[in-house]
Amino acid sequence: MVEQEVIGVDAGATWIKGARYSAELELLQEIKQASAAAEGSVAYFDAIAEVVAALAPEGGVPVGLSLPALLSRDSKTILAMANVTDLQTGDQPQVVKDIFTERWNTAQFVVQNDAHCAALAEWKLGWGSGEVSRSLLHLTWGTGIGVGFVVEGLVQYGWEAGHLPVSWEAADWRCGCGSTVDLEALIAVPRLVEQARAAVTAGIVATKITLPELADIREAPKLLSQRASSGDALAQQILGEALTWMARGLLGMSVISFPDRVTIGGAMMASDWLLETLREAIEANRQGFVSRALEARQVQRAKLGNEAGRVGAAWLALQAFSR
Q1: Given 3-state DSSP classes, what are the helix, strand and coil percentages for the chain, each rounded to the nearest 5?
Q2: Co-location of 78 and 150 in the same domain
Q3: Which of 109, 137, 205, 249 is least buried, going by the fewest C-beta atoms within 10 A?
Q4: CB-based burial label for 58 (10 Å; 0-12, 13-18, 19+)
Q5: How deeply is 264 buried, as exposed, middle or buried, from its count of CB atoms within 10 A (0-12, 13-18, 19+)?
Q6: How many domains does the chain have?
Q7: Where residue 59 falls among pLDDT bands split at 50, 70, 90?
Q8: Are residues 113 and 161 in the same domain?
Q9: What average pLDDT does this structure show over 75-98?
Q10: pTM higher than 0.70 for the full model?
Q11: 97 pLDDT more than 90
């Protein structure tokens, strides 16, 4: 039974962000470290355990874990993780209990897809809170593209819509799942950073961005967002094209889901310019039946920002282990 505290961990492909919360989801402590996902699943799961141990050295605190993974319907098995090197193909499903019970000192933990956790947090505490919002579609824009869909507080299983095919012309980037035509292949942060590096090297588009500024893949997204907002031509060209693909992807998802609200979170969605450019792209691509499914005004930046995943994970732990 949870009396006072719970841990929420958002384990992304680039960063692991963890926090310790009160039973009222008041932030008590937070920590962030590199994920080690590129080193394989063992290093990745060890890094998650290190974050949990730093937040609860004595153990015993319930944990909610948000993972960028395709999970089984009961969330007990990791079926595939597109951005963890040895779990991309789904050939070796991992039993969640086996992975984590031996890595941290608690049997009280719950695991959910990262975009689902973020969608739940936004539905409960963000844009869905305090207003009539029956359904909420959430997209997280980062190393991968996560999508979650919540209806009346319940996660809808599946929704791996970051792998939705949106182009039949192969991109110059391959998604972790192997596709070159899905949304992630076109707008994932690593691909955009590579585009920026190539463009800076070629010197075709005017820009004040330098190659050293793009060296750190963990900081480059923030830089591109800031420079686009301040009018840099290259940053606006790269992100503008990405936002057009995102708009088309969201319109396709909306024809299926007809959401009351759409929220966008992640490292790439931190400015008014990005939101307004996305809305313009949505309006430019609305036609026919699609026009009934989504309007630009329904789309907002996630209120909880980059913290939505860990907040949603903590809320799931509170639901699972409190009475």
Answers
A1: 40, 20, 35
A2: no
A3: 205
A4: exposed
A5: buried
A6: 2
A7: confident
A8: no
A9: 82
A10: yes
A11: no
pLDDT digits (tens, 9 = 90+) for 252-292: 999 999 999 999 987 678 789 999 999 999 999 999 888 89
Let me know whether 283 and 141 are in one domain.
Answer: yes
Domain of 89, CATH number, reads: 3.30.420.40
Q: Are residues 278 and 177 both part of a single domain? A: yes
Contact 113, 313 (CB under 8 A): no
Residue 23 makes CB contacts below 8 A (sequence gap 6+) with 2, 3, 4, 5, 6, 318, 322
pLDDT of residue 306: 80
102, HSE (Cβ side, Cα atoms, 13 Å): 7
Residue 55 sits in which domain range? Answer: 5-118+307-321
Task: Give a three-class secondary structure readout of 49-102.
Answer: HHHHHHHCCCCCCCEEEEECCEECCCCCEEEECCCCHHHCCCCCCEEHHHHHCC
Residues 251 and 234 in one domain: yes
* Token output for 36: 């080690």
- Cα separation, 83 vs 258, in Å, equals 29
